[in-house]
Design a protein that fits this description.
Layout lengths: L1 E2 L6 E2 L22 E2 L1 E3 L9 E11 L6 E11 L3 E3 L1 H9 L8 H16 L3 E8 L8 E6 L21
Parallel strand pairs: 2-3
Antiparallel strand pairs: 1-2, 4-7, 5-6, 6-8, 8-9
């Protein structure tokens, strides 16, 4: 098992993902979740992969109330791709996890980057307002490789009622 960033998430690099195609139990926390990777069949080609999680949830560590976000993860794969079922389970494991918006967003980005070692990765965490203020968090690894088309993340800035 490889460790990602300084978080306690267990990251698997097994050649055959153990979640894929099998019944599995949702992990109770990010520490119990396992991100898995699979070989990139087009490692010789630069392209972008995008994952969007429009219903991401975590728990405010101060109030214990739920926080909601729309996450957009873009990366230019190298030798590995993130296995999507493991990513879904990993993201869902934050539902009972108490952490601030910045911690959740950056941790997820660092964990995926540590697992995949992509050419480039960015994550946008578009958090819904709590206390009347949205907090959007953005993190990326390095510089975008040349000649790569990166579409806008497609999430409108929060405008409130106005």
């Amino acid at each position: 098992m490889a460790k990602a960033s300084k978080s306690k998430s267990a990251l698997k690099s097994a050649p055959v993902p153990h979640l894929l195609g099998r019944s599995a139990t949702m992990p109770a926390s990010p520490e119990e979740a396992e991100l898995e990777r699979v070989p990139n069949p087009h490692a010789d080609t630069r392209y972008v992969t995008r994952f969007t999680s429009p219903e991401f949830t975590s728990i405010c560590p101060v109030t214990g109330q739920p926080d909601f976000a729309h996450l957009v993860i873009d990366y230019v794969p190298n030798k590995w791709l993130v296995e999507s079922k493991s990513l879904k389970f990993y993201l869902a494991s934050f539902r009972n996890h108490g952490a601030f918006h910045e911690d959740c967003t950056v941790r997820i980005g660092k964990d995926i980057a540590a697992l995949l070692k992509p050419h480039w990765l960015r994550i946008g965490g578009y958090w819904y307002p709590r206390g009347g203020m949205p907090i959007d968090v953005f993190w990326q690894t390095g510089k975008l490789p040349q000649n790569i088309w990166i579409p806008d993340q497609g999430v409108a800035s929060y405008r409130g009622r106005g």
